[in-house]
Design brief:
The chain is of the alpha+beta class. It contains one helix and four strands, in the order αββββ. This is Crustin.
Length: 111
């Protein structure tokens, strides 16, 4: 019984750590390479210096999924940060994620 409780505590701690590690601290420097709008249309730096992204060529087809109003706190992998669709594979779009507080590559939805 104690082993099961300990295992459950480890799982919970891991999920909390992954959720907190997913948040991206805002970059406020003037040398930002890419600016994006969050879900409230406020500009933030989504391409800080020191990170190289592929060039923007065109928007990928489809649309971003709706921005969640609440976060589940469960992630199976760390999201891929992006400043534009060109940084995502062709089946994905660069969409704002309120839980990460940054744009990330997400599977597209078609109209």
């Amino acid at each position: 019984m104690k082993v099961q409780i300990l295992a459950a505590m480890v799982v919970v701690a891991t999920v909390v750590a992954m959720t907190e590690a997913s948040r991206v601290p805002p970059y406020l420097g003037r040398d930002c390479k890419h600016w994006c709008k969050d879900n409230n249309q406020a500009l933030y730096c989504c391409g800080p210096p020191g990170i190289t992204y592929p060039p923007f060529i065109r928007n990928h087809p489809g649309k971003c999924p709706s921005v969640r109003s609440t976060c589940t706190g469960v992630r199976s992998y760390r999201p891929k940060l992006c400043p534009h669709d060109g940084a995502c594979d062709f089946r994905s779009k660069c969409c704002y994620d309120a839980c990460v507080e940054h744009h990330v590559c997400k599977a597209v939805e078609f109209y």
